[in-house]
Each structure stands twice: as C-alpha cells, then as structure tokens.
Amino acid sequence: MSSPGTVPQTTPGTTPGTTAEAKDLIRLRRIAELRSQVATWRRAGESIAIVPTMGALHDGHLELVRRARVDCERVITTIFVNPMQFNRPDDLSSYPRDEAGDTAKLAENRVDALFAPAAEEIYPKGYQTRVSVPLLSDCLCGAARPGHMEGVATVVAKLLLQSLPDAAYFGEKDYQQFLVVQRMARDLDIPVRMEAVPTVREADGLALSSRNLLLTPAQRDQATAMYRVLTELAARLKDGRTPAPPALAWGRAALGEAGFDPVDYLELRDADTLQPLERAERPARLFAAAWLGQVRLIDNLAVVDG
Ligand code: AMP
Q1: Catalytically annotated residue among 48, 61, 78, 254
Q2: Count of structural domains, the chain
Q3: Where does 13-57 show beta strands of DSSP type E?
Q4: Which of 9, 18, 103, 231 is 20 to 30 A off residue 66, Cα-Cα?
C-alpha cells in the first residue's frame, strides 16, 4: 500500500518497461535472509507486497507484480514449486523450471527481491504442520486433487508469516485457491491484505497458463472453446432466473464437441462460499476444468459480480 506522497521505487538507471540488470534483484534463499531484508525495509518505513508463484513466469504472473508495484513500495516475488501441493510425483518432477528466465522477467518488472528457497528450507526434517480450510477446499479442484488445497494453504501461510507483508497478490485464474488462502489468512489472524487480480488472457480469451505451452497447435485452437463456453453460459445465466443445470449440460457437451475429454467439472457456484447454485441469483461464478490430451486446463468467470 503506497501512502499518499510516497514515490514509487525505481531502480537507478532504469525506467519502467526497459530491461533492468538482473543484478538489481536481491536473491534470497534462506528464511533468515528474507526476514532481515524485510526488517531493513520496515525500518525505512516502506510498505511491502508479496507475490507467491511457482515460477515459469508469464504475463499473468507479471500482472500480479505490476499491481503489487502500484500498491506497495517494495515487491517480493517468491518462486517455490511446493511439493506439498502435488499429489503425483511425476507432476512435481515435470513442473517447468526456468529460474534464469524468471529472474530476467522479475528484474524487468522492477521486483525488489526474489525469494526462492530450497524444499528443505520450507519443510526441514521433522516438518509436520498442515493448514486445512476444509469447506472451501473439498470441491472443484480440491475434489480431484486430494491434499492440493491443504498444500497451497500451508505454504502460503508459511510465506506470509516469513515475510509479514502489507499485501499479498493472487490471480483470479485460480479463484478457489484465492478463496482458500483468503479464508486461511482471516482465520489465522495474519495481518495482510489479500488481493485478487483479474485473469490475464490471450487475445482469443484463453487464460494464460504455463500449461498452455504443452498444447499441440491443434489443441491450442481447441482450447479457446473453454472461454467461449464460459462466456456464453454467463450470458445465458446472468438474469438470475435461468436454471443452471440444462445450461451446464449444454456447456459440457459443447466442451466435449470441441475436443475436451474428460470434462472434470463445469459448475455454477456461489462466488464467496463455493456452494453449488441452481441459478445465478446472488454473486455467482462459473468454474471449468477439462483435459485436452495430457493437459488439464482450468478457468472461471463471474456471472453476477459480488
Ligand atoms: P502459479 O505459479 O501457477 O502457482 O501461479 C502464481 C499466481 O499467479 C497465482 O496466484 C495464480 O492465480 C496467478 N496466475 C496464474 N495465471 C494467471 C493469469 N492468467 N492471470 C492472472 N493471474 C494468474
């Protein structure tokens, strides 16, 4: 949060949008280093934002950074491929990693510090504690991936307590994940503003995701159906009276015809509690997850805003 009259921090010799030297980025590997850097900024009265990621950064991640930059004087991005949130070892080992590329992107976007700890730093020998947010976690992506949301809530709780920022930034792309970590921070009285940033999309509507790179050209074309179906459904349901089940059945069939197989879910849910809805009669959101070959894509869209 920038207080009135504060000047946004700029890196000497660079202007926004130009290539900054990666040496301007402070690289932190240990929790103690992170705490000491945060303490230095706090002593200078500066506000601090954190942007948690798993790396392989694209413009969706960088949009979170840009929002954080506007609100706070110091921005920390974390890159940690969190083993606790993966339920398949092959998924964890094949997760894309590109620290050199990520570092350059973060420097260009004037991030102050990158916190990229090793797994043993976050989960040392003997580690046991898990943070669970059951009602928001057990549906949608949480149902298909047991332990996934618990892993996310646990690592975000740890990162918030390690850095004690003013604000933390998350993408609406993972809307359920945002609700889970927002609830976690409230329930644990962690004094941080949890901010959700709208999904960044390609020109044809496809939500940016590191998984998009795994699509063949033909699958990349098919992938646009997900946003098209969500947009069409939102238009049909936004009057708040149209029953959702037949519309959702149409949507599932449309995704299938476009080549998605299987469709894990396509649902209308309350935008705050994630309870299933028969109609979009209060703040409501559509949620979709479906496969193109080996690639699972997710997306969501507001029908009636909160
Ligand atoms: P990940 O590295 O996939 O864990 O994502 C880190 C953060 O970036 C999460 O808060 C995501 O919701 C967010 N994010 C990922 N893709 C997008 C996107 N297309 N638009 C906005 N935020 C995104």
Answers
A1: 61
A2: 2
A3: 26-28, 48-53
A4: 231
